[in-house]
Amino acid sequence: MSAVKRTPQEQEYQEVVLKRLGERIRELRIAAGEDNYEKFAFKHNLSRAQVWRYENGEDLKLSTLVRVLRALNITLEEFFKGFDL
């Protein structure tokens, strides 16, 4: 089975969304008093590299987003409430 090819516009939109997701994660982490992503990752049993990648716009699974949001003690609804592109 071959991978679905995305148009350049679809690829660009995906990159914009992932970047905004990462920015939102970082905003909420800092708002929760977690200034250092490495300490946050260690405290919540997450990979430092993983947190860094997500905050910098790399693709992530929904299950991973849920783990990060649980660590921040917020719901998906709260996360997306302030989410805009």
Describe the structure.
The protein is an all-alpha fold and 85 residues long. The protein is globular. The longest helix is centred in the N-terminal third of the chain and has 24 residues, at 8-31. The chain has a domain at 35-85. 66% of the residues lie in helices and 0% in strands. The protein is built from five helices and no strands. α2 packs across α3 (48-55).
Mean pLDDT: 93
Order of helices and strands: HHHHH
Largest sheet: none
Q: Give the helix proportion (percent range).
A: 55-70%
Strand segment tally = 0
Low-confidence stretches: none
- Class by helix and strand content? mainly alpha
Measured on Cα atoms, how large is the radius of gyration? Answer: 14 Å
Distance between the termini: 33 Å
Number of helices: 5
Protein name: XRE family transcriptional regulator
GO molecular function: DNA binding
Domain HTH cro/C1-type: 45-79
Organism: Mucilaginibacter terrenus
Could you provide a short overview of the structure?
This protein has 85 residues and is mainly α.
Topology, pairings included?
Elements: H1 8-31, H2 37-43, H3 48-55, H4 62-72, H5 76-81
